[in-house]
Amino acid sequence: MKRLIMSVIVLGLASPITSVVAQEREIGRYQIVMNPVLAQSTFLLDTVSGQVWQLTKFGALEGEPLAWAPMSRLDSSEDYQKFVSAYAKKDQPIVSGTGQRP
Fold this sequence. Notes:
- The protein is of the alpha+beta class.
- 33% of the residues lie in helices and 21% in strands.
């Protein structure tokens, strides 16, 4: 019986401690990184998951609102291949005055 009571007390004390530790990990989890020369290069970094968002102005919308837009992360050649295959290649521009593509 004594062991049961001690277990309940220890578990009861551990829960608040675990909660405090989890909260401390959340402090500073998200970092805003900005290029001081180019304000358009403002990013939100999740230091736990590694996800990154870029602050984006949606100029085609009334009021041109800002929002964090997720960025793709390419960690392997497979990720790169999937990313590239999701988009069509651009046509090469015609070099001005020559009528030819580079």
